[in-house]
Automatic annotation (TrEMBL):
One of its GO terms (molecular function) is kinase activity. Keywords: Kinase, Transferase. It comes from the Bacteria. It holds the Pfam family ROK. Coiled coil: none annotated. CDD domains: ASKHA_ATPase_ROK. This is Putative NBD/HSP70 family sugar kinase. The keyword Chaperone does not apply. SUPFAM superfamilies: Actin-like ATPase domain, Winged helix' DNA-binding domain. It comes from Paludibacterium purpuratum.
Length: 403
């Protein structure tokens, strides 16, 4: 069966009417349509797929027999015999998803409908071996809490800083997690978590999460700009997540900072002179300290600015200029309809957005795009990891049952 991706990047299959792979191709297509329409009747699915009612009914019966589909009731209020309603069977498989942050590791167990059955948040350890052990422990705890057998987990997804080098089996540009760029990292993770493991860039997954559950829904072209412990950009173009040739699309941390910047890179920051060192949370705190403002965090800087402290207001103003400086390069190239701001810094829209818009108006001869603050908050990466895992898990469940 030839599998392809649709405009939203989902795994899907064409409706086939030829003699080869007819039944499996049509059943997969019906299953995909059911995921979007659930609950749905056989006549609805026949209309949606363009298949005959007889073919659709037979496919649903087989999917129900295999355990991928279940009856969920009947449609009421219809003239004549009420048609039966079908829905994907949630317990046909599970996905484990992780968001690996510098401070917090968030995990979730989700069924094949995308419903989260178990959620855990734990502090991220500083050593790689402890971090891998933590992931294994979280998997075991989540499965035990919901009574799920390890064999029922079809896919595990880790959202992590950096970009996976599949050939070398290691991550690059993952400096916010010490030791996470080890050359045998992927091997270590697979030994503990299994071969059914996907590692993806956290900002790309956050962008998927925002596209599925946040303000990016039904927006064909938008960017998700995350500013917090690190800085990154996720790109959705023509409804698809854009990764680039090597997976490095959106790595804006490597851009040069704004010239004549008054921001103060944090002491000991690696790769000095790069954009991230002048725009992330540590840079805001370092700038505040340089101005004589004793604050423990970027959050405290924004709180002080909201209270009217002139030094904090100066720090926030410089941060807005840095964000606009990066968008000055991004907007003319990608022409997004929407810029979504996320991360601990990006969510401070009340203080940042007026200045960002004004700087962009000064920088560019074109109108700035619309702006919005992430609606998924701290769950963006986790939601995206679940969504990415579901595409793989559903196909895997289908292939296993059809084998």
């Amino acid at each position: 069966m030839k599998v392809k991706t649709n405009h939203a990047g989902r795994l899907t299959a064409p409706v086939t009417r030829g003699p080869v792979f007819v039944r499996q191709g049509n059943e997969w297509a019906i299953y995909q349509h059911l995921l979007a329409l659930t609950p749905a009747s056989s006549p609805q699915l026949a209309q949606s797929t363009g298949l005959s009612k007889v073919t659709t009914s037979a496919a649903l019966n087989n999917l129900e027999r295999l355990g991928l589909v279940t009856q969920s009731g009947v449609r009421v209020g219809s003239a004549g015999r009420s048609p039966r309603l079908y829905a994907p069977r949630a317990e046909a498989g599970f996905v484990v998803a992780f968001d690996m942050g510098a401070e917090w590791t968030r995990g979730a167990l989700a069924d094949l409908t995308g419903s989260v059955a178990v959620r855990q948040d734990r502090r991220t350890p500083t050593h790689t071996a402890d971090l891998i052990a933590l992931l294994a422990d979280m998997v075991s705890a989540m499965l035990a809490e919901h009574g799920v057998a390890p064999t029922d987990v079809l896919t595990k997804v880790i959202g992590s800083p950096g970009v996976l080098d599949a050939k070398k089996g290691c991550l690059r540009l993952a400096g916010n997690l010490p030791g996470w760029e080890s050359e045998d990292l992927l091997t270590q993770l697979q030994q503990v978590l299994g071969a059914d493991l996907i590692i993806d860039n956290d900002i790309n997954l956050a962008t998927l999460g925002e596209q599925k559950c946040g303000v990016g829904r039904e927006v064909e072209n938008f960017v998700f700009m995350s500013i917090g412990t690190g800085v990154g950009l996720g790109i959705v173009a023509e409804g698809k997540l854009y990764r680039g040739a090597g997976g490095f699309a959106g790595e804006i941390a490597m851009l040069p900072p704004s010239p004549n910047s008054t921001a103060q890179p944090a002491a000991g920051t690696s790769h000095r002179g790069l954009y991230e060192t002048c725009a992330d949370a540590r840079a805001i705190v370092a700038h505040a300290h340089h101005l004589g403002l004793a604050v423990p965090s970027a959050e405290a800087v924004f709180a002080a600015a909201a209270a009217g402290d002139a030094r904090a207001i100066e720090c926030v103003g410089e941060e807005a200029r840095q964000i606009a400086w990066a968008l000055k390069a991004i907007v003319p190239i990608l022409d997004p309809a929407l810029v979504v701001l996320g991360g601990g810094i990006g969510r401070n829209s009340a203080l940042l957005l007026p200045a960002i818009r004004q700087h962009l108006t000064d920088f560019l001869p074109i109108a700035p795009p619309e702006f919005a603050v992430s609606a998924t908050g701290t769950d963006a990466v986790l939601l995206g990891a679940i969504e990415h895992g579901l595409d793989h898990a559903r196909l895997k469940a289908f292939e296993q049952l059809m084998a």
